[in-house]
Amino acid sequence: MPRRHGDQVGDQVPITVQQATSVTDPDAPIVNSVELRDTGVVITSLMPGPTETDFFRRADMLDTPVGQQSNDDPAAVAAQGFEALMGGEDKLVAGSVGTKAQGIANKVLPDKFKAAAHRRLAEPEEPQSE
């Protein structure tokens, strides 16, 4: 079979162009910046907080704190994501001011703390005794 040459994005091999990790936290993830060279493809990582969609019902999470709280407007999240994509940003924490503040805090909080906070929001609440 003849070999095809690089006119499709799927033919490209992602190339790590930058790698970073914490020197003070051994549990910190390694962060890679990846590029698809010579494709014209722009990738923007959209990182929304909890958003008012059907997700929590489909995930059977309506009995959890995150499933019961008021969440971010999906139209606002999508608009912010589109603006970031058109602006050439590589990543964006989208949503409300609270979600953006959480995104900033997540840059400095230890993973163990973030996992515990997520667990509290995602675990079903105990039924109230009468």
Give the total of beta strands: 4
- Biggest sheet, in brief? 2 strands, antiparallel
- The number of helical elements comes to 5
Widest sheet: strand order?
Answer: 1-2
- Topology order in helix (H) and strand (E) letters: EEEHHHEHH
Number of domains: 2
Radius of gyration: 19 Å
- Uncertain runs are none
The termini sit apart by: 72 Å
Average of the residue pLDDT scores: 79
Please give a structural write-up.
By secondary structure, this protein is α+β, with helices and mostly antiparallel strands. It folds into two domains: 9-39, no CATH class; 42-130, no CATH class. The chain is built from five helices and four strands. The strands form two sheets. A two-stranded antiparallel ribbon has the order 1-2. Strands 3-4 form a two-stranded parallel ribbon. It starts with 14 loop residues before the first strand and ends in an 8-residue tail after the last helix. The mean pLDDT is 79.
Structure described in brief:
With 130 residues, the protein is an alpha+beta fold. 33% of the residues lie in helices and 15% in strands.
List keywords for this structure.
33% helix, two-stranded parallel sheet, alpha+beta, 130 residues, 15% strand, 2 domains, 4 strands, single chain
How is this fold's topology laid out?
Elements: E1 15-20, E2 31-35, E3 45-48, H1 55-58, H2 65-68, H3 74-86, E4 91-94, H4 97-106, H5 111-122
Parallel strand pairs: 3-4
Antiparallel strand pairs: 1-2
